Amino acid sequence: MRIVLLGAPGSGKGTQAKKLMADKNIPQVSTGDMLREAVAEGTRFGLKAKSIMEAGNLVPDEVVLGIISERLDQPDAQDGFILDGFPRTTQQALDLEELLDQMGTPLNSAVLMDVDFDILMKRLTGRRTCSLTGKLLNVYFSSQEELDECTDAGGELIQREDDNEETIGNRLDVYRENTEPLIEFYRKRDKLVTINAEGSIDEVYERLVEAL
Ligand code: AMP
Questions:
Q1: Is the separation of the CB atoms in 6 and 186 below 8 Å?
Q2: Are strands 2-6 and 81-84 parallel, antiparallel or unpaired?
Q3: Which of 14, 118, 178, 209 is the most exposed place for a label (fewest CB within 10 A)?
Q4: Distance CA 63, CA 45 (A)
Q5: Among this protein's residues, is 171 annotated catalytic?
Q6: Could you give the CA distance from residue 83 to residue 67 in angstroms, rounded to a whole number?
Q7: DSSP label at 176?
């Protein structure tokens, strides 16, 4: 299975990709996660990416393409992958198409995760990661037990640097301007599947699996 998860920041791409990865044993390939790793390593490239990401802007297409083509070349991606946060521009979608054509492994589908604007804001501003387990949580939507499980074990609930209101506003604008055209891109290629991505994680996951 080779799929792209499309959707605004906060639509639940990462959460659903992780569930699908655990369930179907195919890797989640998240350009955001890979870029954050580069930033954490503090390389010169990481430093450049850091300021772009903190402002909520997009890292140049050729940079993410390089990261993606290296990643899709790895042995664990040969039987499929879930792309999360890539492509984000028409150029990236064209590059991906070319790359997969060369590999002889075209995409199966692009799943659009559809979520109302108000819910996106709550998901983004409330999002936290447990410093111990890496588990994604949300101060508005996770149960108190889930939140306590992390903190009682000595973990901290960490907020992403770009999950503040100012940056979130820009990320949503960038999404509308650069990424939303990909809905038409994949519809024209008959690859688009839209799911209602509101509701609990399990409810959305059920719809996702059904759609695939
Ligand atoms: P994400 O974790 O997918 O929300 O990505 C976090 C940030 O990483 C984005 O706001 C961008 O600055 C950068 N980023 C991630 N994926 C891409 C991409 N495909 N193209 C350009 N920038 C990206």
A1: yes
A2: parallel
A3: 118
A4: 10
A5: yes
A6: 12
A7: I
Provide the b/e sequence for 144-155 (b: ≥16 CB within 10 Å): eeebebbeeeeb
Amino acid at 143: S
- Ligand 1: residue of 5, 29, 53, 83 to mutate (most ligand atoms within 8 A of CB) is 53
User: What one-letter code names the amino acid at 180?
Assistant: E
Per-residue pLDDT 10s for the chain (212 aa) are 999 999 999 999 999 999 999 999 999 999 999 999 999 998 888 888 999 999 999 999 999 999 999 999 999 999 999 999 999 999 999 999 999 999 999 999 999 999 998 899 999 999 999 999 999 899 999 999 999 999 999 999 999 989 988 899 999 999 999 999 999 999 999 999 999 999 999 999 999 999 99
Q: How many beta carbons lie within 10 A of that of residue 32, not counting itself?
A: 19
Helices (H), 85-133: 90-103, 117-126
Please name the residue whose Cα sits nearest to atom 1 of ligand 1. 32
In the reported structure, the alpha carbon of residue 30 is separated from the centroid of ligand 1 by a whole-number distance in angstroms of 9
CA-nearest residue, atom 10 of ligand 1: 56
Listed residue (178, 187, 5, 172) closest to 82, CA to CA = 5
71 among known catalytic residues: no
Running DSSP on this structure, what letter comes out for residue 59? P
Please give the model's pTM, rounded to 2 decimal places: 0.90
Quick check: is 127 catalytic?
Answer: yes
| Sign of the four-CA dihedral 130, 133, 136, 138 | negative
Cα separation, 159 vs 130, in Å, equals 9
